[in-house]
Design brief:
alpha+beta, 11 helices, 6 strands, globular, DUF169 domain-containing protein, DUF169
Length: 228
């Protein structure tokens, strides 16, 4: 198993993903940092606040930075990542109910309560295109089309077989589904995106999002190479 997971460097992994899948953008390395002193050396704070989904797109386009609570423009996303608290109206379900997404407060609250949320207080999230990552990512986020996600799914099952389970609700997609979920559950996830990520971060109608665990990313990319 060790040989199957061995890859020399995140630049190599990123290049393999981009070449084998035909990705338009880089896979994104995301690391959650507990304390300020744990920030990777040489990574600067983002210039201005942005939503987590926007920051993933910025990193996919080549930027590297970190974002503490005061740089996280979407507090719902920051709450899922364990960086900040969600507003009360989000926690009660009132926010999503008022948007017309649910028939009742109860259905909105039930959905929010089941969204993956990290119960730690992190200082910041660090973002970088995978090929430029100078740190070990907790999660790697890939924005891709359905055919590319299919190939990733096949790679995930290459060694042990089984099924790929996708867990999503159409809200808090790139934050909760693609990062918090894999971080907490130690298994990958595929999510369809959400209205926020499509409106603010430019996720296209023909794109979806895959969140992969950083610990075994070498296994995944080597499996992808084997089936290509």
């Amino acid at each position: 198993m060790a040989d199957e997971c061995q890859v020399n460097g995140y630049d190599v992994i990123s290049e393999k993903f981009r070449t084998l899948l035909g990705l338009e953008k880089s896979p994104v390395a995301v690391k959650l940092v507990l304390r300020e002193e744990d920030l990777p050396e040489g990574i600067e704070k983002i210039d201005k606040p942005a939503r987590h989904c926007e920051m993933v797109q910025m990193a996919a386009a080549g930027e590297s930075f970190y974002a503490p609570a005061d740089s996280q423009a979407c507090k719902g996303g920051a709450d899922a990542l364990g960086i900040d608290e969600a507003p009360a109206k989000v926690k009660t379900g009132e926010f999503y109910y008022q948007l017309g997404r649910f028939a009742s407060f109860a259905s909105a609250k039930r959905t929010f309560d089941e969204i993956p949320s990290i119960d730690l207080k992190f200082y910041a999230a660090v973002y970088a295109p995978l090929e430029k990552a100078t740190f070990d990512p907790d999660v790697i986020v890939i924005i891709c089309n359905p055919a590319q996600a299919m190939k990733i799914s096949q790679a995930l099952l290459y060694t042990l077989g089984g099924r790929v389970e996708a867990d999503f609700s159409g809200i808090q997609s790139i934050c909760a589904d693609a990062v918090a979920g894999p971080y907490l559950r130690k298994r990958p996830n595929i999510t369809m995106g959400c209205s926020g990520s499509r409106q603010y971060a430019g996720v296209r109608d023909d794109e979806l999002i895959v969140g992969l665990n950083g610990e075994n990313i070498g296994c995944v990319v080597n499996a992808l190479e084997a089936i290509s």
